[in-house]
Every structure is written in C-alpha cells, then in structure tokens.
C-alpha cells in the first residue's frame, strides 16, 4: 500500500535432520519438516509417536541430539532463548495454573499489563472478566485451560504451540477452546497444535504433519 | 562435676532399656541400637582425644582451623550420603558450610561476643557445621521434590520467557520455608519445652545457670543464622545444577 510500510516477519519453523534419543530409542529419527507461518498446523499421530517432543524442541524446552531447528530462518542455537520464548508461546496438555487468582496468573506473564490489556486478552479466549479475581484453582477444566492460553497471549507472541490442550476437556469446552484458537489464527497468529483426535484435526487444521514412530510425513 | 568410668558403664543400662523395648516389641532394632551406642561412644572418645590435643596450652590456633576444615569436608560428604538424589551436593554443601561459618563467626568472634580461642572455635564451628548439615539435607531434598512435582508449572513459567532463576523462585522459597521452619519452631520452644544440649551440658558441668542461659541464647541465634545462610546457598547451588545455562529444566532423576 502506498505510504505504508508492511513488515512481515517470518514465523515459520523448520527442522533438518533432527534426532532426539531417550536412552537407546530414537524418539525423533532424522526428521525434516517445515511449519509455515500462516494458519494452524496440526502434528497428528498416535500417543508416543514423538509429537510432544517435536513441539518442545520448537520452544527449546528440549534440544535435539543432532540436527537443526530454526525459527524465522534462524537456528534456535543462534537466538536468545528468553526472547524466543516470548515470541513463541506454549500451552501444555495438563493445565498449569499458578497459585493465586486469574489476575495473578496473567501478572506472572505480563507484570506491567494494564486492566484494558488484561480484559482484552480474556475476551480473546472467551473468558468472562468477572473471573479475574477468582482463585485459578476454582476454575473449571475448560476455563483454566483458556486462562493458560490467555496467560500466553498476554505476552503478545507471534506463534503459539498447543500440546493437546483439549485432551482433558468435555465436548462443550473443547469446542469453545477450538473456536478461540481458530479466531486467533484468523487474526494472524501462527499455531502449531499437537493432537490425536481425528475429528478435531479435521475441524481445526489448515495442514497436517503426520508423526509416527519418530518420523514426520505430510 | 565429672562422670567416672564406672558411672559411664552404669549409664549403658539405659542403652539396655532401649534394646529391651526393641526386643519386647520385636522391632529387630537391638543390634542397631547397640551399634549406634557403641559407635557414638567411640566417636566421642576419639573427638575427646583430638580436643585434648587441640586445646592443649600453647597449641597454635591453626590446628583448630584445620580441624574446622576437616569437619566441613566430612559434613559435606555425610550430606551427600544422606541425599544422594540431589546432584553434586558435596561441593555445594561445602561452599554453604564455609559461607555459614564465615557469617556466624564474623559476628561471634569479629564483634567480640566470644573470644577467638581453640576452646571457643572448635565447639562453635561444630555447632554451626552440624546444624548446617541437617539444613542442607532438608533443603536439597525439598527443593528437588518441589521442582520434580511442579515440573509442569516450572516449564510453563520458562515457556513464558522467564529465566530459570525467576521460574524456580516460588519453589525455592517453598523449599527454604520448609527447611527453616523446624529450626524456628525449635527456637520458639527453647526453655519452655526443653533445655537445649549446650545449656544442659554447662549446668551439669557446674557453670552457673545464668551464664549457661546466655551462652545458650548465643548458640541458638548462631544456629538460626547458620541454617538460614546454608539453606540459601544450597538452594541457589542446587537450582544452578537443575537448569541448563539456556534455561531448560534438566529432568531430576527419580532413582
């Protein structure tokens, strides 16, 4: 557009020759994969196939025994890990509320966020702002997982990694969570979603990487 | 006041009482009790012998400092034996004991609460290091448990971009709190519930009770400071070993 400077950051991930071993077993065995910036990429496959391990590599919570993981074209080894984790958020399979209220939880992620920012982020995950002063331990399963997503989003990441975030949720809360993530992806957030529920994959995936026995295929 | 050898022999009856309880209840601890009593007696006699040498008139204070160093090494080794699950505890513990000794001795000797002589240095250092050793085992184990049980939470904090020092802080504080609480409770109950060892010993040895109380008060404060210093140094040291420099939590082994 005339007079406008469009800055498009590369938010793609790539893995080249990635190997992760646990003892004698290769959890990931010479994996090459590309995860583009746009939409929702689902890592799909049976339990124990190496999906979570792959996801953890993208946030450098684990490091590969061999090969290279890159974000935005830069190997993670060359990036400041704390800055990377602020750019790439992660929501875990088991909800991890910290001690205190919902507001306290958001403050752990963004101590300087003002009330407007806090309310906006709750809205993005369809959580009622009335829950702000509720103890996080008293939230329902669906609410607490959406709070965890909100806690990640308040750091304004470019990408989020979701490790089977709805596996412990009933159908209703599961659909609400999916809806929130679909809207986030439409707003331009890069999403990598680990899942093994075929129905859900069909509903949310823009593309699927099949992970099986430590290998990745498209 | 002194205890004769015959008196010591008679006091062994008390060990017999403990062994009898074990026999009556079929606890299977008789041999253990006898072994513990015998071992304590031999250790005390050996230490007594060393103290006679160290405290002999005209003996250089350097021998006492050497003894303190030996105690630091032995206590570090013992802490490691008691908490083998805590990675590389020995060097961390040794640094912690030295730090606790430096802080407490700076106050006790540096500010003239007690004169620095072999007679004061050896027992005071023993008190500091003994208590620091217990505190080390407590805090090391507790911290490992915290980080193991709350691993998901710790990683969620790391994933928010927190450095490991910040991500581990709530769990470090919980471990410190639980390691220091017994010491604080003991300090609170002193005098009301029980008469502590140093004071009992002094009164039995014929020192007037007021002097004994004053020494005991100093000892309690010293132990409190030693425990606080040690737990802090150990907790920080263990955290450093449980995280990589690039802020990943290394799986604490369950073995």
From TrEMBL, chain A:
Which InterPro entries does the protein's record reference? Answer: AAA+_ATPase, ABC_transporter-like_ATP-bd, P-loop_NTPase
Q: Which domain of life is it from?
A: Bacteria
Residues forming the ABC transporter domain are 13-218
- SMART domains in the record: AAA
State the Pfam families in the record.
ABC_tran (PF00005)
Task: Tell me the keywords, alphabetical order.
Answer: ATP-binding, Nucleotide-binding, Translocase
**Which molecular-function annotations from GO does this UniProt entry contain?**
ATP binding; ATP hydrolysis activity
Q: Give the protein's recorded name.
A: Phosphate ABC transporter ATP-binding protein (PhoT family)
UniProtKB/TrEMBL annotation, chain B:
Localization, UniProt: Membrane
Q: Which UniProt keywords apply?
A: Membrane, Transmembrane, Transmembrane helix
InterPro entries per record: UPF0014_fam (IPR005226)
| An annotated GO cellular component | plasma membrane
Q: Which coarse location class applies to the principal site listed for this UniProt protein?
A: membrane
Positions of transmembrane segments: 6-25, 32-55, 61-77, 89-114, 120-140, 189-207, 213-239
Quote any Pfam family the record assigns: UPF0014
- According to Swiss-Prot or TrEMBL, what is its membrane topology? Multi-pass membrane protein
Give the record's family classification: Belongs to the UPF0014 family.
Q: Could you identify this protein by its name?
A: Putative ABC transport system permease protein
* Source organism of the structure: Actinomycetospora succinea
User: The organism's lineage?
Assistant: Bacteria, Bacillati, Actinomycetota, Actinomycetes, Pseudonocardiales
């Amino acid at each position: 557009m005339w007079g406008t400077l469009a800055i498009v950051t590369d938010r793609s991930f790539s893995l080249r020759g990635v190997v992760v071993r646990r003892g004698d077993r290769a959890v990931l065995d010479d994996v090459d994969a590309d995860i583009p910036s746009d939409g929702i990429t689902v890592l799909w496959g049976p339990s124990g196939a190496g999906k979570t391990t792959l996801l953890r590599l993208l946030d450098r919570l684990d490091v590969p025994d061999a090969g290279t993981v890159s974000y935005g074209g830069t190997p993670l080894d060359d990036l400041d890990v704390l800055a990377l984790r602020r750019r790439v958020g992660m929501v875990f399979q088991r909800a991890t509320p910290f001690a205190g209220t919902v507001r306290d939880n958001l403050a752990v992620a963004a101590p300087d966020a003002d009330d407007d920012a806090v309310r906006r982020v709750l809205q993005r995950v369809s959580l009622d702002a009335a829950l702000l002063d509720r103890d996080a331990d008293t939230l329902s399963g669906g609410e607490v997982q959406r709070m965890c997503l909100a806690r990640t989003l308040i750091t304004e990441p470019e990408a989020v990694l979701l490790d089977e975030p709805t596996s412990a949720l009933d159908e209703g809360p599961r659909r609400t969570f999916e809806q929130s993530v679909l809207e986030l992806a439409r707003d331009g957030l890069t999403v990598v979603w680990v899942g093994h529920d075929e129905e859900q994959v069909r509903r949310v995936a823009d593309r699927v990487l099949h992970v099986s026995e430590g290998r990745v295929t498209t | 006041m002194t205890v004769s050898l015959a008196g010591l022999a008679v006091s062994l009856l008390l060990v017999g009482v403990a062994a009898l309880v074990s026999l009556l209840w079929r606890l299977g601890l008789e041999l253990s009790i006898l072994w513990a009593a015998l071992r304590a007696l031999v250790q005390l006699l050996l230490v007594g012998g060393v103290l006679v040498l160290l405290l002999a008139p005209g003996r250089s204070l350097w021998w006492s400092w050497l003894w303190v160093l030996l105690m630091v090494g032995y206590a570090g080794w013992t802490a490691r034996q008691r908490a083998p699950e805590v990675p590389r505890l020995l060097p961390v513990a040794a640094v912690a004991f030295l730090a606790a000794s430096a802080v407490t001795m700076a106050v006790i000797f540096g500010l003239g609460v007690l004169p620095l002589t072999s007679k004061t240095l050896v027992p005071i250092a023993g008190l500091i290091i003994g208590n620091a050793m217990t505190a080390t085992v407590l805090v090391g184990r507790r911290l490992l448990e915290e980080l193991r049980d709350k691993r998901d939470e710790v990683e969620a904090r790391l994933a928010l971009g927190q450095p490991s020092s910040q991500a581990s802080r709530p769990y470090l504080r919980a471990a410190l709190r639980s390691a220091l609480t017994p010491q604080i409770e003991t300090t609170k109950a002193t005098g009301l519930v029980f008469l502590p060892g140093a004071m009992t010993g002094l009164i039995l040895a014929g020192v007037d009770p007021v002097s004994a109380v004053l020494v005991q008060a100093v000892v309690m404060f010293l132990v409190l400071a030693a425990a606080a210093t040690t737990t802090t140094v150990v907790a920080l040291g263990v955290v450093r070993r449980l995280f990589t420099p690039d802020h990943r939590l290394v799986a604490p082994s369950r073995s």
